[in-house]
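Example record

The entry below shows one chain as it appears in the dataset: sequence first, then structure tokens.
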Amino acid sequence: MSTIQTLINELNMEAATTRKMLERVPNDRYDWQPHPKSMSIRRLATHIAELPSWVTIVLNTDELDFAKYAHAPVEINNTNQLLEYFEKNLASGRADLEKAKEAELDKSWTLRNGEKIFDKSPKSQVLRMAYCQVVHHRAQLGVYLRVLNVPWTKCR
């Protein structure tokens, strides 16, 4: 199996679990946060929903420079919007991955803030890191849902 097909399969597998978690975010709790230093559910769930867009970013650029990147999070106010945003980013990432060439995955990709380089890795490795971020933040969301007594155990 090619690396691209493996990445597509993993994207689809993680998307299924992520979708189930995002479906459980209560519409009346978007501003809730477990601690003042923690993200709100809105911010955390929106971040999870936007992570599939990293596939598109990585495959279509050679770097992300936070000094030049003006990130404006999408304002999500309910679970339907959240799921629509997730599906849009997922479809874009999947489409770019499906048309990618294996050789593209070996090219270097850099994460930086101006002159400070945080990471420089092959694109395939950066995509795997993005997938790991989905799992990491999805676990955070699971804790939030548990604290709020929202059933989520059937997400696995």
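Notes for this example: The chain has one domain: 3-155. Helices lie at 3-23, 41-50, 53-60, 79-98, 123-147.
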